[in-house]
Amino acid sequence: MSMSSNRMAKLLDLARQISRLEIGHPMRVAVDGRTASGKTTLSDELAELIERSGRPVIRTSIDGFHRPKAQRYARGRFSALGYYNDARDLSAVRSLLLEPLAPGGDRLYRTASFDLERDVAIAQPSALAPVDAVLVVDGTFLQRPELRDLWDIVIFVETSRGLSDARGLRRDRDRLGEQIAMKVYAERYGPAFDIYEETCDPARTADVVFNNEDVDDPILRIRRGGRLSPDQQC
């Protein structure tokens, strides 16, 4: 794992705090934030450090629960409302992934219900989660009302829209083409996140805010009164 010493120190602190929690069922950790804010990278890093502590880790993404293309784009290819409301099957996220790992759940979970490339539903076999497992899920809009009560810890990856868009365009322009990528970020992803901020205030309600504006020197803020340590800034 290659990263700056400052980033490693923040992640080690966060991983230790998560790893030492015992809650009697698999711990469900959400890594929320804007498109291209760095959620996937942070989730991978955090999952590796938690696993090093000896806790079993289930690492996945909400992207395994897309809806069919006809539903995702029913309001238009560049619709912000379409992205916010229609992109993912939140009932499947609840019933297949999060509820089985809740208190009293059978711990038989699935990490995907849909093959995005083939645009078809899949029947993935269930797996049995260890009681002390830590589930790390990255995705956008993870604190929507449909999901919020099923997370044990929520980490919000904080970045400005301008920086996230720039990172996303570098990542997606070869796949989508420059003009389409710019239009998707300007009209679909960015405005959809505005809706999310206005309705859910995700930075305020998260247990942890991980400011990722400077990836080499991030800022870690932990909410007072949550499962982790009292409010602090590192």
UniProtKB/TrEMBL annotation:
The keyword Kinase applies. Gene3D superfamilies: P-loop containing nucleotide triphosphate hydrolases (3.40.50.300). Residues 30-210 form the Phosphoribulokinase/uridine kinase domain. GO terms for molecular function: kinase activity. It holds the Pfam family PRK. SUPFAM superfamilies: P-loop containing nucleoside triphosphate hydrolases. Keywords: Kinase, Transferase. The keyword Cytoplasm does not apply. This is Uridylate kinase.
